[in-house]
Amino acid sequence: MEMLHLCAARRYSEYNAPNSLRKDSYDLMTLFPRRLRLMALGVAIVLAFIATLVWVAPGVSLQDTPRTGYDPLSPEEQERARTLAVERAEFASALNAAGRSELLLIERHAESKTDMRSGNWPRRADIYTYLYDSDTLLLAVVNLTSGQVDSVETVQNVQLPMTQNETDRAIQLLLADATLMANIAGQYQTITGTELTQPQAQLKLNTLIYRADAMPNANPGAAACGLHRCAQFLIATQNDIVINVLPIVDLSLGAVVSAGPFVN
Questions:
Q1: CATH code for residues 75-155
Q2: What is the pLDDT of residues 127-163, one digit of tens each?
Q3: What CATH topology corresponds to 164-260?
Q4: 241 vs 188: CA distance, rounded Å
Q5: Nearest-5° angle of CA 130, CA 131, CA 134?
Q6: What is the dihedral of CA 158, 162, 166, 171, to 10 degrees?
């Protein structure tokens, strides 16, 4: 009974409290929910603003800003460099005279230290194209700032890394050599106990540019490599057990020219 009297007295005091006190209690109850709503609204506005910065129309990149200085060439700059080079008669005639050619690389031209110290130099591109019939590297330096081709020259005995297209061709020439593949298949079966039926799936075929002067007299059949464009293979099983053969494919001739053992 005493507890009931206490509760009744508390309710009576709250009901008969001054208006200001009741108002303060109401404000305290509504203040925090109101602030939470305002905070939620603020977060939503910020997220919407960020979304407008991140979202761009299809086909448009936020990185499509003009490149300068040491920036690598953009795909658009590379394509423009190729277009400008082909418009130069000297470059076009050399390219057209070549029965077989391969675009090896387009990269930013390395300017001289003097030009770089000035802090202002043009955007230029080096275009390297290999002409197989003459075993010549065709180099064009294209000035993207002026829209002109600054120079065109040809050199021999210079071999840049192979392109994926060249690697694929070297693999096909390797697989087409019946004698070599019989040797590889025999070693593979001895190592794994399994027949070699799908060489490209069962073997790891690693390639690199080969130059005869790197291993003088080691591979007589590949003596022209360096002047010719050649690929050397390192072949292994999927478990990284090396096949004891080092094939060399001459891409200029279109044939396997050496297939000596990796270890005698």
A1: 3.10.450.40
A2: 999 999 999 999 999 999 999 999 999 999 999 999 9
A3: Nuclear Transport Factor 2; Chain: A, (3.10.450)
A4: 9
A5: 135
A6: 120
